[in-house]
Each structure stands twice: as structure tokens, then as C-alpha cells.
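Changelog excerpt

This revision adds worked examples to the README so contributors can see how folded entries look when concatenated. The first example is reproduced verbatim below.
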Amino acid sequence: MSKNLAKARSFIYLPKEGLQGEGIPSHILWWDARAEYVQISFRSPLKFKEIFNVESYEIQDNNIEVKKVEIEGYIGLSFESSKVSDLEIETSVAYLMKLSNGDVIKEERKIKLFRPQLEINMETKEITITPETGFLKGRVGIKNVGRGTLIMGISAAEDSAVQLQTPPEHREFAEKFNADLIKEMSKLAKEFPQFQSMFDEMLKWEKKDLIELSNEERDEFLEYSKRLAVVLASDKDLLQGFVEAYAKALAKNSEFIEAIGKFIRVYESLVSKDILLINPFDEVALTGEKNEIILEIEQTDRVYNTYDDITLPKIELASSKPVKVPIYKLFDWG
């Protein structure tokens, strides 16, 4: 049988799952025939973003009709997804192709879109601290009951009687590390001119709180992250220099190695529960008398979706002696 008469083969890709709010890739591959008609239909919460290797197409509602491909054998697609109220939702994409040898390819691929969700359980509004042992009774239960890493920061409300403090050694490390990292990245930008624009944008984002990004800023930051990845991947020497910049900045602050190690241990413990707390060592300074604190939680995920802030009911903290308690210890991390 000649190649032209051989039965066409095809392959359709759509990931089986993804995080709500992230980009969803898809592609169609085929062999031994020409595509005479291609239609792709998708369902909410997917939205069309881009199509690749296509010379002309039309899109109406949730249907894409390909008129002509640039090179036979491949069509690439990119969808956007959006965050919804459901923790997990199943949707699908339907593919219809008619090929020059008469074959009709008709497939539907399903994808589950998930997101994290914070659940808080307060059985009591009083936490008792034993200064001698560091034991806490009555901790606030907190758990990610969804899927995907939840990024969160904890602060005290403006009207809270007790405020949080950042330990001097952690604040000093953060300031010195950031300053040294910027110096190393500046050297890298001079050595690799293609990195200069990325470095300029890095300085812009370094000043922002990523948890509090607007939807427009979120999209800008995600696009910046993609461009940065492309630039780094284009030159292995640049990529190596980028990694070494972080290593050098850490090495210059080796006197804070104990604080760094402590942070890493807590970080690994929480990430294993799909939670990343950005300020675990901010602490509450108790006086030895009963103190009251109102805590607020800001949250996002790894594609910086918007989540509602949470204000906890007033908590009474009791200790027989003055003591400083890291904020992460006030919670039972499920």
C-alpha cells in the first residue's frame, strides 16, 4: 500500500487536570493525510487564547473552525481557564477532523480543573502558652481542603491590641539578601545584554506584594515569568549565572545560616500540606498577662488568583511569663 493510501494516524493532547486560572495547552498531530476540515469546541470555564500553525480560522462562541493550516500535521492550541466557586470542576474539549483520505477523527477529551481552599476551625478562642516548654493549647485549626498550593500571609488587624513583629535577624537577612541579590543580578545584566530588560522588570516586581496583585498586575507578572523563562532557557551560561547569583547572595549572608535553615524546615513542613506561609516567623510578643489579637489572612495560589481575605475572631493569648511566639505556632496545620 502506498504512503498516500495508508490509513492516517493522529494524536490529540489535552492534560487530564490543571489549576483553575492557569493556561491549558492542547495540540493535534496527524500523519499521512491532509486536514480538510477541523473544528474544536470547548466548554466553560475554558476560554480561547491562541492557536498555532494556522493560516486562517474563525471563532464563534465556543467553537473554533480552522480554514487552513500553515504546515500539515500539527495544530497547537492554548486555552485560558478561570477560577470558579467549585473546588474541582470537569470540563471538556471536542475535536472534529475530516482528512483527505476520508477518515473522520472525532474525540472528546476531559480535564479536571482544581484549586486550593482554606478551611479554618476554631474550637476555642483562647490559646494558652507554656513559656518553659513552648507548648500551646487551643491552636487554631487550619487546612487546605482543596488541591494546589495555597500561598498565604498572616498579619494583625490595625485595631488589634497586639501586633506582629518580624525578628531582627530575619528582617536583617531579608534586607541584606535582597541587596546582595540585586548586585549580583546587575552584574549578570551587564554580562548578558539580553537579560537587562528582565532585570529592570525584576526590580519593579521586587517592590510589590505578590499576594495583593490586581487581576491586571497578575496577568502582567505571569507574562513576565514566561518571558524570563524563555530568556534563561536561550543561553545555558546565562541560566547558570542566574542560579549562581542566588547562591552567591546566600553565601554572603552565611552568618544567618541558622535562620535560613529554620525557615527551610518550616517551609518544607507546610508545603507538604499544600500551604506556603510567607511570614512564618513573624511573632507575637506576650507580656505575661492575657493579650488579645485579631489576625487577618491574605491568600492566593501559584497563578496569583484572587481569594477573599479572612479576618479571624478575636483570640485571647494567655501566658504566665513574657514570651515571643512565632505566628506559625498559633496554628494546627491539619
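The second example, added in the same revision:
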Amino acid sequence: MNADVLRNVLETALPADKVVSLARALKVVERQSLIAIDQLVNSLVLVARTPSGGRQADVLRAYAEATGDKPVRGAFYDRFNDELDQLMTRLLDDSLAAIRTEPVLLPPCIDGVKDWLAIDSETVKLHPSLKDKFPGTGDYAAVKIHKTYSLGRHNIVDYHFSPAKEHDSCHLTVDDSLKDYGLLFDLAYPSQSAFGRASRRMCVLFASSSATGKRQLKT
């Protein structure tokens, strides 16, 4: 993805007028500010996957490169508050809601279900001060992001967080909302009870182990 494509994606998913309007409604911006809230949001999105995990210094650097302005560090960091958190959460929820309304497009060879959902997790290390709230599997803090990717919509449609120490199998819920769906996941997620619930709901499960290459299909 080059810079032009990325810019178009951001402008489509996070139009400046929507970001500014919502920021005012949530009181993120209550008066004229030297910090452009739409550019701040874009910078937050862009640095989220940097090796350092999107720290505030990375956001400031990305903001300065995008706008040509370098705000006073303290004033910039003051923007990281509960109101900004609410804004980012609302923008994410709106984006996921929009994605879920898109049509499911599957090739004929796998279209026997409503959609195929790929479920996987990613672990991100956090600041050591968060170890009590988000314990990792060792002596460190980490959060696990559980993501659900729709093959028919070519996008993430759901997510949730957990302490990295918790096993993935605690975070696979097979209920009536997944009836007639196909699920793809690695072998860390399923349990016998999950397979039983899936069979009662005519749900197709396909488990894969990246370590051993084993595959298991249950319908």
C-alpha cells in the first residue's frame, strides 16, 4: 500500500468533517485549538502498528510530519485524555458497524455458509506499570487482541481484549449468532464443548495448528 492509497483509505474511513463534528459533540474540542483533531486521529491510526507500539512520542512525530507543525510537547500530550479515548472508541465502533453492513462475497467453492470468520489473537507488550491489570505469560505486562476477520467482507468485523496470560480457549464463544457460519482458527481456541455447541448450530469449524500443520474439520 503506497502513500496515496493509504491517504485515500484514511479520508474514506475517517473523513475530517465527521471527526471534527464528533470531537466537538464529545467535548474533545471545545474551542479553537492549534492541534488539528482530524490529523491527530490519523496520526494515532498510522503509528498503532509501529515497533514501539504507538507511543505518544511516535504520534507527535507522525503529526509533525503530516502537518509541518510541531506543537509544544506538553500541550500535545494533554490531548491524550478520556475524551480522546471516547472519540477513538466511537470512530472504531462506527467503522465496524459500517463494515458489517457490506455484502458478503464468497467464491462458489466456499459459499455454503453465511460467511467464513477467521478468529485469531495478537499479543502486544505494554508498559510494566500495567502488569497487575494485564499480566503476560512471563514477568511483563501484555494485552491480547482477539480479532474476527470476515472472509466475505475482507475486513475485521469484531474484536475484544484480554490479559495476555489468559488462554485463547476462554475467548471463543459459539452461540446462536454464529449459526450457519464457518469458523477458522488455530488449535489454541477450540474445546470439546465449543465443538459440541457448533454442531448443534450447524456451524462449520476448521482448526489449524501452525506448529504441527495438523488440520481438523468439524461440522
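Reviewer comment on example two: Confidence is low (pLDDT under 50) at residues 212-219. The longest helix spans residues 82-100.
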